[in-house]
Design a protein that fits this description.
The protein is built from nine helices and nine strands. By secondary structure, the protein is an alpha/beta fold. The strands form three sheets. A five-stranded mixed sheet has the order 4-3-5-7-6, with helices on one face. Its cofactor is Ca(2+); Zn(2+).
Length: about 375
């Protein structure tokens, strides 16, 4: 080699370090099996699914029963009174295909890396499939044009047309995180304000009663584990929160999360940090009647990664809510969204936009450059 050429291992190391700096921080939640050692591992209730990568029909593997329970929780499988087995049967294959269709993944029926990665992402506790009907999966025309991917709960429940003003109260529960009261109230006020800006609805906070009750239309509270509504929480980075369709008004958040209510969540000390306002905006959408959206950029998309802020309504969200309640004549439209985190906005944003694919592509490019330089 000439004096102006670098050894292969130096070029590879330089390129890899540079790309790691660009891609960092990357959550192992969004990495497929085998690449999790690139970044610090973030444990969550579904981390063990990583061990099921590439499992397919006909196989028997420990952990499949737990994955079936996950799919049943979000509506993809019916609950079985006798429990689930570790057999990859036809029902599981069809459930995985339905899941892949909803999240716009390759429909293989196999637990490929992209599917497992999506299943491991922190998410909303509201089901994607309700009463056997999946409203997330778009029609072919919707998929192509990326419009009207929003959904409603079965029966299209909404608040009465006569109700333009709704009240909400923040419950004082033993599990409420140590967040300054004024900061907490401001977060929820901003979250409600994002929906009122686009609709004819207004929201007003009222005080939580000292007796532990409220006449508010909407009640918000932090709870841990089984808290009496049939939807138990499961610890950090599993189901982050859930809310009920109109006109129930209950909105519950998992007290076990590392909630961030102020400052830049992308710079939070904990890798497990979750932006409270981002989750609140999503759950308020459920309170108003919206189901989950198949559009990764929408607020109503089911998953969000840690240390990510996502609070601006997308066009899909606006179309969905205005179809229910009408539009605010002063609404100025959807502003361009710029991610405020070096992480991807959602773990399901598509394989091409995931940090781990960028990293792999960069290493591959580095190999090509090194070979050319030889």
């Amino acid at each position: 080699m000439g004096n102006n050429r670098f050894p292969l291992h130096i070029l590879l190391a330089t390129a890899a370090v540079a790309m790691l700096a660009v891609a960092s921080p990357v959550s192992s939640v969004s990495l497929p099996s085998g690449l999790g050692d690139i970044a610090s591992k973030l444990r969550n209730p579904w981390s063990a699914f990583q061990n099921l990568t590439d499992t397919h029909f006909g196989e028997q593997k420990k952990g499949l029963a737990r994955l079936k329970t996950y799919l049943a929780r979000f509506g993809y499988l019916p609950e079985l009174p006798t429990g689930f087995t570790d057999t990859f049967d036809a029902d599981l294959e069809e459930a995985i295909k339905s899941y892949q269709r909803n999240f716009r993944l390759d429909i293989t029926g196999v637990l490929d890396a992209a599917t497992v990665s999506q299943m491991m992402a922190p998410r909303c506790g509201v089901a994607d499939v309700i009463n056997g009907t999946s409203s997330m999966a778009p029609s072919p025309s919707q998929h192509v044009h990326g419009r009207n991917l929003y959904s409603y709960f079965p029966g299209d429940p909404r608040w009465p047309r006569s109700r333009k003003s709704l009240t909400y109260a923040i419950a004082s529960t033993p599990e409420t995180p140590a967040i300054d009261s004024a900061t907490l109230r401001a977060v929820f006020a901003r979250a409600f304000g994002r929906w009122s800006a686009a609709t004819t609805l207004n929201f007003t906070e009222v005080a939580w009663s000292a007796s532990g009750s409220s006449t508010a239309d909407i009640t918000i509270g932090f709870y841990a584990g089984d808290h009496g509504d049939g939807e138990p929480f499961d610890g950090p980075l599993g189901t982050l929160a859930h809310a009920f369709s109109p006109t129930d008004g209950r909105f519950h958040l998992d007290a076990a999360e590392a909630w961030v209510a102020g400052g830049d969540v992308a710079r939070a000390a904990a890798d497990e940090a979750v932006d409270l306002e981002s989750v609140a905006v999503h759950e308020i959408g459920h309170l108003l009647g919206l189901g989950h959206s198949a559009e990764p950029g929408a607020i109503m998309y089911p998953t969000i990664t840690s240390r990510t802020r996502k609070v601006e309504l997308a066009e899909d969200d606006v179309q969905g809510i205005q179809s229910l309640y009408g539009g605010n004549p002063n609404f100025k439209g959807v502003a361009p969204v710029t991610p405020t985190s070096s992480r991807e906005m959602d773990s399901g944003a598509g394989a091409g936009s995931r940090p781990w694919t960028v990293l792999v592509a960069a290493v591959a490019t580095a190999v090509g450059l090194a070979v050319v330089a030889l």
